[in-house]
Write a structure and sequence with these properties.
It is a single chain. With about 150 residues, the chain is mainly α. The longest helix has about 45 residues. The two termini are about 40 Å apart.
Length: about 150
Amino acid sequence: MTNYATSMSDPSSRRKHSFAWICLVLSGCLEVVWAYTMKLSHGFSDPLYTVITIVILAANLFLLEKPVAVLGIGVSYGVFTGLGIVGTTIAGAVSLGETLDPIKIVSIAILMIGVIGLKFCDAKEAAQKAAKMIEQYNSQTIQHATSPQEGDTK
């Protein structure tokens, strides 16, 4: 199974990798929206907000599939849940009047540091894999250039 992060020197793979991160961030944002609309559905007793919640949840999971395939489940789910937790906490405080005490603020900051850390780990891993591929390509090119070609009579 090919992981797009293993061939970051290819522009097409870089685009797929970037697209996966965009889908991941959008999925994390939709996580906040469906959680909010679920609250507005009052235990799924309001048909309009129940339908909106289900549609957004389905779109959310659809968007999450691409990052899982490209970035892996660990990074994808970690970022997804981190964004969801941070976003729903902020949305609850701003829109629903939920309390936001100093411990919650510090916890949100720690989560965001973790999400940013996962992004940097992914970038570092991709760069290392790309460097290894370039090294392998260069060594194969050198071997090919120095080995006798078919049909050569030396």
